[in-house]
Amino acid sequence: MPIGVPKVPFILPGDDEASWIDLYNRLFQERLLFLGQEVNSEISNQLVGLMVYLSLEDKKKDLYMFINSPGGEVISGMAIFDTMQFVEAEVQTVCVGLAASMGSLLLVGGEITKRLAFPHARVMIHQPATSLYEGQAEDCMLEANELLKMRKTMTNIYAQRTGKPSWQIHKDMERDLFLSAEEAQAHGIIDTVADSL
């Protein structure tokens, strides 16, 4: 039997009694954001809105994005990435579980020196992909050209944010490259591996 989203007590300013709100809304108030699914336009719009709102609310307090994602839509992911760079509040990224594909690009997009992975987390990078395209040959070629542009953009982002040369990133992205937390740190995708207790 599903339990739904847990509720937690929260005292609103000026109230004497606590109100019950869902767990994620409470965590959002503490500037903790979660990407725990495949990246799509819905979660992208939610995270973009939260980052902008929380940054406007207090641009000096860091935002924390917890990532456990198999990746997803490139354009939706780039919207999140661009917003992370745009907002004045610094965005710390934390890999819990898996940051694969677009999830790893968002992980590397956190504030440099503030990118972290838990000890048993996994990171995977690869080239962007498309589903099999059914349509006119010319449309297929246009999509292939767009995919090549996105790959170049993503290669440049990884190279800039990891300090690795573009040719190395290009080579690493040829196939799925799975990394442990320590390997991701050595690769420059994260800065720190969280201490295990």
From TrEMBL:
<comment type="subunit">
    <text>Component of the chloroplastic Clp protease core complex.</text>
</comment>
<keyword id="KW-0645">Protease</keyword>
<keyword id="KW-0150">Chloroplast</keyword>
<keyword id="KW-0934">Plastid</keyword>
<dbReference type="InterPro" id="IPR018215">
    <property type="entry name" value="ClpP_Ser_AS"/>
</dbReference>
<dbReference type="Pfam" id="PF00574">
    <property type="entry name" value="CLP_protease"/>
</dbReference>
<dbReference type="GO" id="GO:0051117">
    <property type="term" value="F:ATPase binding"/>
</dbReference>
<dbReference type="GO" id="GO:0004252">
    <property type="term" value="F:serine-type endopeptidase activity"/>
</dbReference>
<feature type="active site">
    <location>
        <position position="126"/>
    </location>
</feature>
<dbReference type="GO" id="GO:0004176">
    <property type="term" value="F:ATP-dependent peptidase activity"/>
</dbReference>
<feature type="active site" description="Nucleophile">
    <location>
        <position position="101"/>
    </location>
</feature>
<keyword id="KW-0720">Serine protease</keyword>
<comment type="function">
    <text>Cleaves peptides in various proteins in a process that requires ATP hydrolysis. Has a chymotrypsin-like activity. Plays a major role in the degradation of misfolded proteins.</text>
</comment>
<dbReference type="InterPro" id="IPR029045">
    <property type="entry name" value="ClpP/crotonase-like_dom_sf"/>
</dbReference>
<protein>
    <recommendedName>
        <fullName>ATP-dependent Clp protease proteolytic subunit</fullName>
        <ecNumber>3.4.21.92</ecNumber>
    </recommendedName>
</protein>
<dbReference type="InterPro" id="IPR023562">
    <property type="entry name" value="ClpP/TepA"/>
</dbReference>
<dbReference type="GO" id="GO:0009570">
    <property type="term" value="C:chloroplast stroma"/>
</dbReference>
<comment type="similarity">
    <text>Belongs to the peptidase S14 family.</text>
</comment>
<dbReference type="GO" id="GO:0006515">
    <property type="term" value="P:protein quality control for misfolded or incompletely synthesized proteins"/>
</dbReference>
<feature type="active site">
    <location>
        <position position="101"/>
    </location>
</feature>
<dbReference type="InterPro" id="IPR033135">
    <property type="entry name" value="ClpP_His_AS"/>
</dbReference>
<keyword id="KW-0378">Hydrolase</keyword>
<dbReference type="GO" id="GO:0009368">
    <property type="term" value="C:endopeptidase Clp complex"/>
</dbReference>
<dbReference type="InterPro" id="IPR001907">
    <property type="entry name" value="ClpP"/>
</dbReference>
